[in-house]
């Protein structure tokens, strides 16, 4: 399938989600507002935020000031760990909607797995979905064991699993599991927080296409059927991260990237089990 910035994936409940989104982790205040405005001006139509990020108000203001119709932009946010539990989820969503200035979000996510709260948290997520205030629901950082636990209590399966995913942390078993279960894989840190920008393999492939290693890494996620949400506060890089549709990786190039996987040594964020046990 030919990819473009307008390409979407169809989630299990029929909602269309753009394959490329703009991440806002650790972006706050005026910087969050100007970055989201730049992303929307460039053509991004999916914005990812979270209650933890402290920038939902700026995301909502940027959307309103952009002049783009609400229905044309996919907005995702997340409940934090201390907001879990059935009523906690619902209260957190109302707070997020208030900060965003929206009547609904397109995707509401559980930020990290907390094993003892699976049942109550997911019931809250299901209620949020049933109310229409979340058009789709999902999880973040759930590995196979966490998905197994969730499956025991869920009436509605998660539609998205947002996990750390990039050439250094590929998690092929999880990727296959999600594909088999009809859960969309969304990659946070698709450029490994900048750690792979000097990788010789990516540099070589980038040179062949006259692009950057970051663009190669994002393209790799997309060609594997994933969703990518790169983040930047630099206008030129925001534009660069969106310019991944003028080239395609060959099967040989994809194979060369596949062998870069470092397993758990490639992880740049916290292992989900550290939260699951809390």
Give a structural overview:
The protein contains 11 helices and 10 strands. The longest helix has 15 residues, at 86-100. α1 runs parallel beside α2 (56-66). It has one domain (8-276): NADP-dependent oxidoreductase domain (TIM Barrel, Alpha-Beta Barrel), CATH 3.20.20.100. The protein has an 8-stranded parallel beta sheet with strand order 3-4-5-6-7-8-9-10. Strands 1-2 form a two-stranded antiparallel sheet. β1 and β2 form a beta hairpin. 41% of the residues lie in helices and 13% in strands. It has helices at 29-42, 56-66, 86-100, 118-131, 144-151, 172-181, 200-209, 213-223, 235-242, 251-258, 272-276, and strands at residues 8-10, 16-18, 22-23, 46-48, 74-79, 107-110, 137-140, 160-164, 184-188, 227-228. The mean pLDDT is 97. The protein has 278 residues and is α/β, with parallel strands linked by helices.
């Amino acid at each position: 399938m030919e990819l473009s910035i307008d390409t979407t994936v169809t989630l299990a409940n029929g909602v269309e989600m753009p394959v490329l989104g703009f991440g806002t982790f650790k972006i706050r205040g005026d910087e969050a507002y100007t970055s989201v405005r730049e992303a929307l001006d460039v053509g991004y139509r999916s914005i990812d935020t979270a209650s933890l990020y402290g920038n939902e108000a700026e995301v909502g203001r940027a959307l309103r000031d952009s002049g783009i119709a609400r229905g044309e932009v996919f907005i995702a946010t997340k409940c934090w760990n201390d907001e879990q539990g059935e009523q906690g989820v619902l209260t957190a969503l109302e707070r997020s909607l208030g900060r965003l200035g929206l009547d609904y979000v397109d995707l509401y996510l559980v930020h990290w797995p907390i094993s003892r709260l699976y049942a109550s948290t997911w019931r809250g997520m299901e209620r949020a979905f049933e109310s229409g205030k979340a058009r789709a629901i999902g999880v973040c950082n759930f590995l196979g064991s966490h998905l197994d636990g969730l499956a025991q209590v869920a009436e509605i399966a998660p539609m998205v699993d947002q996990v750390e995913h990039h050439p250094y942390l590929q998690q092929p078993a999880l990727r296959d599991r999600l594909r088999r279960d009809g859960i969309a894989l969304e990659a946070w840190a698709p450029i490994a927080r900048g750690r792979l920008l000097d990788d010789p393999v990516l540099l070589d492939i980038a040179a062949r296409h006259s692009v950057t290693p970051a663009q190669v890494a994002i393209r790799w996620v997309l060609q594997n059927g994933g969703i990518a949400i790169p983040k930047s506060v630099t206008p030129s890089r925001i534009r660069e991260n969106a310019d991944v549709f003028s080239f395609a990786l060959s099967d040989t190039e994809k194979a060369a990237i596949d062998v870069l996987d470092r397993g758990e040594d490639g992880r740049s964020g916290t292992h989900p089990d550290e939260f699951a046990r809390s």
